[in-house]
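Hi everyone,

Forwarding the result from last night's run.
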Amino acid sequence: MKQVQKVERADLLAILATALVAFAGILSETSMNVTFPHLSKVFGLSLGVLQWITTGYLLAVAITITLGATLAHNWTERRILFTALSIFTLGNGVAMLAPDFSFLMLGRILQGAATGVAIPLMFNLIVERVPRQKIGLYMGLSGLVVSLAPAIGPTYGGYMIGAFDWHMIYSFIMPVPLLSFAIAFFNLKNSSGKSKRPFDILSFLFLSAALVFSILAISSLEEGAGLNWLYVAVFLLTFACFIWRSLTVEHPFLDIRILKQPTILFGILPFLIYQFTNLSSNFLIPNFLVLSKGVSTAQAGFSLLPGTMIGAFMAPLLGKIYDLKGPKLSLLGGNSLVFMVMAVYSFFTSWLNLPIILGFYVLFTLGRNMAFNNTMALSSSQVSREKTADVTALFQLAQTFAGALGTAIAAVLVNQAPDTAAGAHHVFSLLLILVTGNFLFYAFLFRAIQKKQAEKTGPKQ
């Protein structure tokens, strides 16, 4: 019998330390969303301006996530995490003491930058230090820690803004990075044998500009102002320059050439669709219940909580299923659940009510959690250790971009529809089409893996 390798306790705690940074960052993001009406009165600013508290944070995350591959090659794990913790703690302190909006924005951008550095490190530690037989379980455990943040964020933010001054949101978050530092200081070990990679600053600037203008274009859609074609043009130009530079330079800043491998391309596409579907649904469902079904705001907010909490606590078990039964059950089974939910939401939109949406959303989160991180785990296992950091960075970049795009597209479809119910039907129909496409992507993915394994073993004698 093949002996299953054990995960060292120090590595488990190191993964937890990095997950705590991601938890703190996501908690600060989701808890602030419910404070905008209050902050509008405090600062005398419109909701459109205050939206940059979230948009600026997401931009910072997206830009620094792209550094994951370069940092993984050139910095030790301790240096990466302690740098991220220092920046996050500084940003949290600035936001905690912020006298005005500009200082709050500075704190949010620093928090976002630190979170973007920490998230790729967390997944790199899992892929590189956890045995293949247990990778699903540890993806699930990290998913549990990170998924709790958006689950409790709105409730936490709402309670804090009602009971205390808004600054206290950050005061109560401060112990989290300090706890992460203590755990990592005693448990995080550096890897040996890293190959250095030159930092191509021109590629980084091109990609950063492309991300900034893509988010600006998406935000213009979200605000209902129509697509800003200047932003789109600058995005396309800078993104094209980034691709050209990455394909021609000897040592690319982020090796997008690995997307030529079907085992990566057909993994990242469903991964992107899951995040697009998740954020679209999270935006749409509460608004649909309030505006179309006459549900109270408090009840509408609760509609997502049971599914999110159950999905978070079930994540380790769902990861264990991946380890024991292989990827096909997790990926195809998870996508089947998501497909079923979107089919119900799409075909029976007018019949939906709070109990139906709540119940099916539980199934949605279970299906998504079965397939989401396990898709990245499967694709990451198909490349050499030297390329895992690039794969992780690309997947996390896709996740950030898909989340912003999903919310914007859902908002546009609802705003342009005759009423909220019709808009919800359009969004759910789009999501159903995208999730159906995942079956095709997974078929290509499994075929590519099978072909790769056949080439590795060679013809039978």
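The chain has three domains: 8-187, 200-252, 258-450.

Cheers,
N.
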